[in-house]
Amino acid sequence: MRGAPQRQQPDEHTQRAGADSSPPAPHLLVQSVVDYAIFMLDTDGHIVSWNLGAERIKGYTADEIIGQHFSVFYPPEDKAADKPRRELVTATAEGRFEDEGWRIRQDGTRFWANVIITALFDETGRLRGFGKVTRDLTERRTAEEALRESEERFRLLVQSVVDYAIFMLDTDGHIVSWNLGAERIKGYTADEIIGQHFSVFYPPEDKAADKPRRELVTATAEGRFEDEGWRIRQDGTRFWANVIITALFDETGRLRGFGKVTRDLTERRTAERVLTERRRLLAHLVEAQELERRRIAWDVHDDSIQSMVAVGMRLQLLANRVPPELLGQVRRLDESVSGAVGRLRDLSFRLRPPGIDRHGLAEALGAYLGEVVTGWGLRHAFEHTLEWEVPTETAITIFRICQEALINVHKHARASMVKVSLAPAGHGVLTRVTDDGVGLASPLDPPTGREHFGVIEMRERAETADGWWTMHGEPGGGTTVEFWLPIPPPGDPAGSTAPSSDGQS
After folding, report:
1. DSSP designation for 185
2. Considering only the top CATH level, what class is 28-137?
3. Comparing 28-137 with 161-264, is the CATH topology the same?
4. Where are the domains of the chain?
5. Stretch 12-37: mean pLDDT
6. 3-state class of 126 per DSSP?
7. Sequence-distant (≥ 6) Cβ neighbours of residue 192 within 8 angstroms
8. For the chain: N or C, fewer Cβ within 10 A?
9. Distance between CA atoms of 342 and 331, rounded to whole angstroms?
10. At 502, is the secondary structure helix, strand, or coil?
11. CB of 232 within 8 A of CB of 207?
């Protein structure tokens, strides 16, 4: 009879593999956890087990803490309130207890803890003790506290701003928050306006055009919407507003509402309109001045100069007929007439319009330097870094101030060299006329005579155009006339397509 097969004994490798593949004991898992303090209490609350996480978080070794009552971890105020005992009572009655609060480490420092106490019952329902899991949430609480403080500071900041209306809308456009600036600008208190639709601020024509809804649609699609236009206060008056609506999305991309910032620009708009009107009047004034100069130049050329030339010709004829004793007087008279004709021609040239509307400022100034200043025996230099054409009215004002400054150099500076420069600066043009002449006797001494009126004319021209003018120099060190004129923005009656430039000197 064949015997039953014998059971094969596993070899050493199989035994080791089988031993290695067996699951670890549960207490080894608990003991190895370091991010949670996991320990057991007896029914009275004394500690009967202790893991590595408990040692790391609370600071006690197992030998130091096992046998002590768990109330050792509670601050004095919680002990005085009998909190440890009440927690065990609650856990026994409800099966578990959860809490967050301050706990004490071995070194006396506090940490913010999340605590879960679980009542442990055997199969007969008898209470055998408690399992306690504690997690150190100090860093998270610190971060949350910092976030709350930041949000509170931001809330206080928004609420305290009075120059801007800052408020929130829900996804349908109803108002859900309101700051002091909104109350000041729009006239409503928070109690009066929260819950109403923001279209209440729009004039009837905008409501009829469905503008409020379209603004929210645009903000949702593009992330933000910006506009300037009329808005309505609670008392029915209108104000000119700059409005920015920002769509607010959460981390999932879901639209949660809108942030709306409104600024009252009524005063600025009024000031801009006054400035625009002033610039329009200035443009008309410059045009009228140039027309009058042209008329006078024509009258001088066609009447006065021609008459004086005719007088000179008659004097030359008369010189051949007068007795010798009168010849000197006639010739001196002829010289005086010739000098007057020269001065009248110079006056006519100065009065003639510079042709800026045809050739531009730079070419007109360059031509004047080449024709007139060279004729005075002065060397000159001219440079400009303008990359755009200056509006006609502004260009004429610059030309006329330069013209007066150059005449002053010719008559008073005793200079051999003069330099003119134009450069963009601070939404305008900075001009300098510099000579190497005798300079100013004293920067504090005002000019006198004809020079005084020339200075007044230059300054008044610059300031009438909303610019500034100055003159400075030292004895023997030459003189510099410096002035700046703004460039009106595009669309202004005196405007151009000139770009803005930073760095006004």
Report:
1. H
2. alpha beta
3. yes
4. 28-137, 161-264, 284-353, 358-505
5. 58
6. coil
7. 234
8. N
9. 16
10. coil
11. no
Confidence of residue 146 (pLDDT cuts 50, 70, 90): confident
Give the contacts of 34 (CB within 8 A, at least 6 positions apart): 52, 53, 56
DSSP annotation of 92 reads: H
**320-373 confidence digits (pLDDT tens):** 777 887 878 877 887 887 777 777 766 666 666 566 667 788 888 888 888 888
- Please provide the DSSP assignment of 300-341 as one string: IIIIIIHHHHHHHHHHHHHHTTS-HHHHHHHHHHHHHHHHHH
> Rounded to whole angstroms, what are the CA distances from 222 to 46, 139, 216, 243, 251?
63, 38, 10, 15, 17
* Beta-strand relationship, 417-424 and 238-249: unpaired
Q: Give the length of the chain.
A: 505
Q: Please, what is the Cα angle at 47 between 45 and 51, to 5 degrees? A: 140
> Could you tell me if 68 and 47 are in contact, meaning their C-beta atoms sit under 8 angstroms apart?
yes
Residue 110's beta-bridge partner residues?
A: 104
In this structure, are residues 175 and 168 in contact, taking their beta carbons and an 8 Å threshold? yes
Q: Could you tell me the two tokens for 149? A: 């403080």
Residue 139 in tokens: 């860093």
What is the four-CA torsion angle of 452, 453, 456, 457, rounded to 10 degrees? -140
The CATH superfamily of 358-505 is: Histidine kinase-like ATPase, C-terminal domain (3.30.565.10)
For 412-440, how does the pLDDT look when each residue is reduced to its tens digit (9 = 90+)? 889 999 999 999 988 899 999 999 999 88
Q: pLDDT: is 228 or 335 the higher one?
A: 228
Q: Which strand ranges, in their side-by-side order, compose the sheet holding 417-424?
A: 379-384, 417-424, 428-435, 479-486, 468-473
What tokens were used for 354?
A: 């510079």
Q: What is the CA radius of gyration of the chain?
A: 47
220: tokens are: 């949702």
Q: How far apart are CA 261 and CA 244, in angstroms?
A: 5
- Cα(118)–Cα(133) distance, rounded to whole angstroms? 9
Alpha-carbon torsion (349, 353, 357, 361), positive or negative = positive
Question: Within 170-265, where are the H helices?
Answer: 180-186, 190-193, 204-208, 211-222
* Angle in degrees, 0-180, between the axes of helices 449-464 and 392-408, rounded to the nearest 10: 160
Ramachandran sector of residue 503 (left: φ over 0; alpha: ψ -120 to 50; beta: rest): left
Dist CA 109 CA 106 (whole Å): 7
Cβ neighbours around 428 below 10 Å, total: 23
Class of domain 161-264: alpha beta
Residue with tokens 């004002």, as numbered in its chain: 397
CA 120, CA 128: separation in Å to the nearest integer? Answer: 6
pTM of structure: 0.44
More confidently predicted of 187 and 156: 187
* Inter-residue contact 457 to 477 (CB < 8 Å): no
Helix and strand numbers, DSSP H then E, in the chain: 18, 13
